[in-house]
Amino acid sequence: MNRLNSKKSLRRKRFRRKVKLIFTTSILMLLLGIGILFGIKLQNLAHYQKIPKTLTIIGNRKVEQMLLTPNEYSRPQIPLKKVNSVVVHYTANPGTSAEANRNYFENLRINKTTSASSHFVIGLEGEIVQCIPLDEISYASNDRNIDTISIECCHPDETGKFNDKTYESLVALLSWLCTEYRLKTDDIIRHYDVSGKLCPLYYVNNEDAWEKLKTDVTDYMKR
Question: Which run of H or of E encompasses 25?
């Protein structure tokens, strides 16, 4: 009888040790997982902090700083904490310059007719104007303002097709942004993909042209 009780007691002790070992291992694995995730977040944060918030040059292209005056209609200074996509727009004002479209955003603080802005505007001569720092949101992409960088592109006519100079600067800027923010070319989206708005018009009506743009960005990043 005593021998039987001893065996039962031994089995119970072994079972308790096994449960304790499993529990301890599970806790350690959980803590390790949390540590890894926390480490990744810290690495991403450190990487984000190293990305310049205002640009002076992209490739061999100068970026002109024309930051908007802080105001609630076009530059609310709301932090942009995470970038998941870059959104391409067209101005819908044929023949207008990058500076003219930037000034439209600036004047919204005075006329207060709507809320609108963009991080960058690319002009007909390929000039790149930065309107919003990269650590602030712009008012461009509806409910995706909180996690996207926006680029407005000028165009010469009603078709909305970008000319060669605008297109080449767009490819260079998209390539830089994808590299810095560790994005894939599939993370380059149209305003249309966010809200259904026909923007950028030519690249909504011509899906092949849109896919070619992303291919050109991929090729540019391989240089």
Answer: helix 2-50
Q: Smallest Cα–Cα separation from 64: which of 36, 103, 37?
A: 103
**Contact between 139 and 117 (Cβ < 8 Å):** yes
Contact in structure between 142 and 181 (CB atoms under 8 Å): no
What single DSSP character describes residue 206?
-
Q: Which amino acid is residue 80, in one-letter code?
A: L
Pick the CATH number of 57-221 from 3.40.80.10, 3.40.50.10350, 1.10.3470.10, 1.10.10.10: 3.40.80.10
Question: How far is Cα 18 from Cα 12, in angstroms, rounded to an integer?
Answer: 10
**Contact criterion met (CB below 8 Å) for 169 and 148:** no
Render 77-123 in DSSP notation, one character per residue: --B-----EEEEEE-S-TT--HHHHHHHHHHHHHH-S-----SEEE-
Enumerate the domain spans of the chain: 1-50, 57-221
Length reported for the chain: 223
Instruction: For 59-106, write each residue's pLDDT tens digit.
Output: 889 999 999 999 999 999 999 999 999 999 999 999 999 999 999 999
Q: Is the dihedral of CA 177, 183, 189, 194 positive or negative?
A: negative
Question: What is the pTM (predicted TM-score) of this model?
Answer: 0.80
Q: Is the predicted pLDDT of residue 200 greater than 70, yes or no?
A: yes
Distances (CA, A) of 102 to 42, 58, 119, 196: 35, 19, 10, 24
CB 153 within 8 A of CB 88: yes
